[in-house]
């Protein structure tokens, strides 16, 4: 349960948010992201299930290993979905913040288009990849038309372009 200070700060934020804003929900070791769609609701991508396999055989629920020319490569397969939830249910104990992180570099889509893109993915089962298609990728894909994760980029510089200018706009459906 959130304390009254957290609730008050989050309540103020909800009153300030506009349709299509990216909302960041800081957690202990990472941040979770979603799109504000009005009426106190957020649409966001969630990981549901992780499957672990080695050399193509499912072992348990963690990662996938396969041989490559450079040795063993690891891949995590996580089933995910995109859902709409009440802002406060997503916030939990965190103090959320508006984070339209790329507005200074990329023109956002119209609020109507952002919300349409987010809603178009609701309730769809998808592959959720922590490095390629996570909640931040989903939020930036909805707002800007490209999936980009500053959080992942900071964690693993070789997984993504070093700057947003090198990212290629993705016209495919998210996930």
From TrEMBL:
Location of the LRAT domain: 22-151
Tagged with keyword Transferase: yes
GO cellular component, one term: cytoplasm
Alphabetical keyword list: Hydrolase, Lipid metabolism, Transferase
GO function term, MF aspect, one: phospholipase A2 activity
Keyword Cell inner membrane applies: no
Domain of life: Eukaryota
A GO BP entry: N-acylphosphatidylethanolamine metabolic process
Family affiliation: Belongs to the H-rev107 family.
Protein known as: LRAT domain-containing protein
């Amino acid at each position: 349960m959130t304390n009254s200070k957290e609730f008050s700060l989050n309540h103020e934020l909800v009153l300030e948010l506009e349709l299509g804003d990216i909302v960041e929900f800081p957690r202990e070791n990472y941040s979770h992201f979603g799109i504000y769609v009005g009426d106190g609701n957020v649409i966001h991508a969630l990981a549901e299930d992780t499957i672990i396999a080695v050399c193509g055989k499912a072992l348990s629920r963690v990662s996938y290993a396969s041989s490559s020319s450079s040795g063993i490569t690891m891949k995590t397969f996580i089933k995910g979905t995109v859902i709409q939830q009440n802002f406060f249910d997503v916030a939990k104990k965190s103090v959320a913040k508006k984070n339209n992180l790329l507005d200074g570099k990329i023109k956002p889509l119209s609020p109507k288009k952002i919300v349409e893109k987010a809603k178009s993915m609701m309730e769809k089962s998808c592959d959720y990849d922590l490095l390629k298609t996570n909640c931040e990728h989903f939020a930036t894909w909805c707002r800007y038309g490209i999936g980009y994760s500053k959080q992942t980029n900071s964690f693993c510089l070789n997984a993504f372009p070093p700057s947003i200018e090198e990212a290629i706009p993705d016209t495919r459906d998210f996930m």
